[in-house]
Design a protein that fits this description.
Layout lengths: L8 E4 L4 E5 L6 H12 L4 E5 L8 E7 L2 E7 L5 E5 L14 E3 L2 E3 L6 E3 L4 E3 L22 E5 L2 E5 L7 H5 L2 H9 L6 E3 L4 E5 L3 H8 L5 H4 L1 H9 L14 E7 L2 E7 L18 H25 E7 L3 E5 L3 E10 L2 E11 L4 H15 L6 H14 L7 E3 L15 H25 L1
Antiparallel strand pairs: 1-2, 2-21, 3-12, 4-5, 4-7, 5-6, 8-9, 9-10, 11-12, 13-20, 14-20, 15-16, 16-17, 17-18, 18-19, 19-20
Helix pairs in contact: 1-10
């Protein structure tokens, strides 16, 4: 059954219906278009400045299909270098992380400094006068920029600035970054796992407030059996909202039923920490005033930054990014973000929260992955062509269990996936 002429999205605001064509989850051609029209055009998260605190510190990783090195040079500037030797292609950095003055390619030993400049070529006198070292520095993405410590790259020279691209998401990154006067830091260690599912299913799942109780029943049963009560019993329906932040970004914001590790004696932190968290809370009020302090300390956020960055500021702050290897397979990386001055004891509690719920072997992630893989297997029934994302569409104020946030993603996705074709058609006309 060939359905490639059907639209990706059906978006009927009048009727209150929103449908996504399931071929976007299984079609290799669609993935190829995503690579060119999304991942090569959008600002993509590459890492956090705190991961390379000292001159020479580096992290090598795959960012949206590109092997890259995030490095702080000997001039203290943070750069992103493309991890491919300008001689004949080998990756010049084969370690995941470290501190180095130079990167030496293992193939023929060309050597680059921490700024990416070529500083050593064995047998250089064999080259002609036209060969210039300065032409052979490691390449960089056309645009690299950061916002509040979050480093992004963009392969489109003509793309809007990162500041403009982030649009309404900046406010929410501020709420995360303001959790510590000294800045936030990525906690050592990284979760890397994969799922046999399309990457956009994880976008949806990351801010899907509808699935919590049925999918994670095991977790809630565990809490109940252990006699652990969530603050307020459950997510308050009064203080919660889903917001379209522009450019495909969206957020769920709600009173934190678990309590927050940054400023209150959440169930997970125990009574003995109460005084400490009260003092922290008081300092937040001093810095930001009562209203903003309340928002930073006592509300949770599931933030999606288009296309593939998720920041879940819930029990702990999780930074998660993922990239498709094939239509039905993605690789996921996640880190914990914490106040730079957090004590060892609090950090241990934070990590415990991070791993217990959102770790690859925690209470939530295996359940989520199983559901995403289940959807992907269900898509083998090509006769059922559409998924429904209509929930809450006719409500004036959609709740966090509605699907406004997903529609914000899909509308932007659809715009980017279809716009270039329209432009080309106009040119030809
Ligand atoms: S490929 Fe790196 S030195 Fe030859
Ligand atoms: Fe979940």
């Amino acid at each position: 059954m060939e359905k490639s002429n059907e639209p990706y999205i059906l978006d009927d605001e009048t009727a209150g219906l929103f449908r996504v064509n399931r071929r976007v989850f299984i079609d290799p051609e669609c993935l190829e278009h995503e690579r060119r029209r999304l991942f090569d055009k959008c600002w993509i998260y590459a890492g956090h400045e705190s991961e390379v605190p000292h001159a020479g510190d580096y992290r090598s990783r795959n960012v949206a299909g590109h092997p890259m090195i995030l490095v702080r040079g000997d001039d203290n500037a943070i750069r992103v270098l493309l991890n491919t030797c300008t001689h004949r292609g080998a990756m010049v950095c084969r370690q995941k992380a470290g501190n180095a003055k130079t990167f030496q390619c293992a193939y023929h030993a060309w050597t680059y400094n921490s700024r990416g400049q070529l500083v050593g070529v064995p047998g250089e006198d064999s080259y002609s006068d036209a060969f210039k070292r300065e032409d052979m520095a490691l390449a960089t993405p056309p645009q690299v920029d950061s916002y509040r410590g979050f480093v992004f790259v963009c392969f489109d020279r003509a793309a809007q600035s990162l500041y403009d691209y982030l649009a309404g998401a900046r406010e929410y990154l501020d709420l995360v970054a303001d959790q510590c006067q000294l800045g936030m830091k990525i906690v050592a260690g990284q979760q890397s796992y994969s799922a046999r599912a399309n990457w956009k299913l994880l976008v949806e799942n990351s801010y899907d407030g509808y699935h919590g109780l049925p999918t994670h029943q095991r977790y809630f049963t565990f809490l109940a059996d252990a006699g652990i009560q969530m603050k307020g019993g459950n997510i308050s329906t009064q203080h919660q909202r889903a917001v379209d932040l522009g450019n495909g970004h969206a957020v769920l914001e709600y009173d934190s039923p678990w309590g927050r590790p940054i400023a209150q004696w959440a169930v997970n932190f125990g009574e003995h920490r109460k005084a400490h968290f009260e003092e922290l809370r008081r300092r937040f009020e001093e810095r930001f005033g009562a209203e903003r302090a309340q928002r930073i300390c006592e509300t949770s956020r599931n933030l999606g930054i288009f296309p593939n960055l998720v920041i879940n500021d819930i029990m702990a702050v999780t930074v998660r990014t993922f990239y498709p290897v094939s239509p039905d397979y993605m690789e996921v990386n996640a880190w914990a973000l914490a106040p730079a001055d957090e004590s060892a004891e609090d950090s241990a509690l934070r990590l415990d929260n991070f791993l217990t719920f959102l770790g690859p072997g925690g209470f939530a992630t295996p359940d989520d992955v199983e559901m995403l893989e289940s959807c992907q297997r269900g898509f083998a029934n090509r006769e059922v062509a559409w998924s429904d994302i209509s929930r809450g569409m006719k409500r004036e104020h959609p709740s966090i269990t509605d699907e406004l946030q997903m529609r914000a993603f899909w509308r932007r996705w659809n715009q980017l996936m279809t716009e270039p074709q329209i432009r080309r058609a106009r040119k030809a006309a």
